[in-house]
Amino acid sequence: MEKPVAPADYEELIRVIHERYDVMSKGYQSIALYLTQNPNDVAVRSVNAIAERCGVHASNFVRFAQALGYTGFKDLQRLFQKRLSTAAPGFEARVKALEGELGARDDQSGDSFLRNLVARDVASLQALLSDVAPDDLTRAAEFLEKADAIYLIGQLRSAPVVDLLRYVLTMLGKRCVLLDPSGGLATHMARTIGAGDVLVAVSFRFYATEVVNVVENVSAKGNTIIAITDSTLSPLAKNADVVFAVPEHEYTFSRSLAAPMCLAQALTVALAARLQNNANDPRIPTVTGR
């Protein structure tokens, strides 16, 4: 069998991974997710350290690289190292710097837990500045501004994000429909989406099945979809018109919603600026006072 031509740069590699992701094995999909979500770590860590963090045997990383046309993993890794020379600091690097500033400790006191979680949340928030393209925020705000109605779906841990969006969008005067999973009607409610309506879907690994199904069904109807998820390889991403990928990182207790909630707020502020024709000082009305 003819050996595939290896991607020559990081951008081409990511494009190839996206193209082949759906036909990859589960193990290779795990590797692909890790590579796309942690490019800085891939550049500086050994294959054994990367494999341990990913939960996949190191030999699988070598075979993954060979399947893409490289001689071995080191050839693939060089693309990440070249990218790193101009990239912003990665998540772990930000965490270490912030732990030094905040005086994070290894003891098991409540104060230690707070400091460590704050360091990780701040690092995730900083990453938004490099991970979120300004043009995507502009496009998403434009879609929301023009929408006849905005449908929102997010279940399990994603539910607080859509609850926030429903509140702020309603206060901005936009007609919103929350596809609530209670009663098992979310899928049926989604069928009422009209031609001029927009769907905002929020889901992170492990993706809620009903959310994925609704996104696929709405995409088939041709509606605009805005997705907030954890990877450009998530099942929401392939059907979305705008994808906000907010990589998740393991925390000591749970994964935080600080970055997704901040992104949701930024999106609504961008919309408010358009609706109010006020880019300098847009305001979100409140129930108690406008």
Automatic annotation (TrEMBL):
<keyword id="KW-0804">Transcription</keyword>
<dbReference type="InterPro" id="IPR035472">
    <property type="entry name" value="RpiR-like_SIS"/>
</dbReference>
<feature type="domain" description="SIS">
    <location>
        <begin position="140"/>
        <end position="277"/>
    </location>
</feature>
<dbReference type="InterPro" id="IPR047640">
    <property type="entry name" value="RpiR-like"/>
</dbReference>
<dbReference type="InterPro" id="IPR001347">
    <property type="entry name" value="SIS_dom"/>
</dbReference>
<dbReference type="InterPro" id="IPR009057">
    <property type="entry name" value="Homeodomain-like_sf"/>
</dbReference>
<feature type="domain" description="HTH rpiR-type">
    <location>
        <begin position="11"/>
        <end position="87"/>
    </location>
</feature>
<dbReference type="GO" id="GO:0003677">
    <property type="term" value="F:DNA binding"/>
</dbReference>
<dbReference type="InterPro" id="IPR046348">
    <property type="entry name" value="SIS_dom_sf"/>
</dbReference>
<dbReference type="Pfam" id="PF01380">
    <property type="entry name" value="SIS"/>
</dbReference>
<dbReference type="Pfam" id="PF01418">
    <property type="entry name" value="HTH_6"/>
</dbReference>
<dbReference type="GO" id="GO:0097367">
    <property type="term" value="F:carbohydrate derivative binding"/>
</dbReference>
<dbReference type="GO" id="GO:0003700">
    <property type="term" value="F:DNA-binding transcription factor activity"/>
</dbReference>
<dbReference type="InterPro" id="IPR036388">
    <property type="entry name" value="WH-like_DNA-bd_sf"/>
</dbReference>
<keyword id="KW-0238">DNA-binding</keyword>
<dbReference type="GO" id="GO:1901135">
    <property type="term" value="P:carbohydrate derivative metabolic process"/>
</dbReference>
<keyword id="KW-0805">Transcription regulation</keyword>
<protein>
    <submittedName>
        <fullName>DNA-binding MurR/RpiR family transcriptional regulator</fullName>
    </submittedName>
</protein>
<dbReference type="InterPro" id="IPR000281">
    <property type="entry name" value="HTH_RpiR"/>
</dbReference>
